[in-house]
Structures are given as structure tokens and as C-alpha cells.
Amino acid sequence: xxxxxxxxxxxxxxxxxxxxxxxxxxxxxxxxxxxxxxxxxxxxxxxxxxxxxxxxxxxxxxxxxxxxxxxxxxxxxxxxxxxxxx
Length: 86
Known about the structure:
Blueprint: H1 2-20, H2 25-51, H3 54-81
Helix pairs in contact: 2-3
């Protein structure tokens, strides 16, 4: 009986460990947004230094913000589904 209970507990621990390696969607979204804020500030700064025009720098930064957030989100979710290295 003890072996059955230990095996059952072992299975429960394995399930909890495998669930803890998966990021939930909210965490992926927050990571996506925070990373893009940092990246976009760098892009706006570089664009301003190159063009000398603040409006153009923010325009470039806005396009970059949206496109790279979408790309990063799907990249992150794809990697989250790959078991290699976990």
C-alpha cells in the first residue's frame, strides 16, 4: 500500500514540476511589453540621433514597437512549447 501511495505522490510531483516549467500567457505578455519598452526607447534614441527629427524617430519607434511585440510574443510561445533544454 505504501508503494502505491508513494507512486501516486511521485506522479503528482511530476505533474506539478512539468506545469511549473510552462509560462502562462499573462507572464509572456508582460515580458513582451516590458522588453519592447526597453527596445523601443533604444530605437527612438538611435533614430533621433541618425535623423535629427523627433517626429520621425517616434514614428519609427511606433512601427517597431507593434511589429516586434507581435513577433516576440509568438517567438516566446513557440519556445515555451519546445521541450528541449527544459
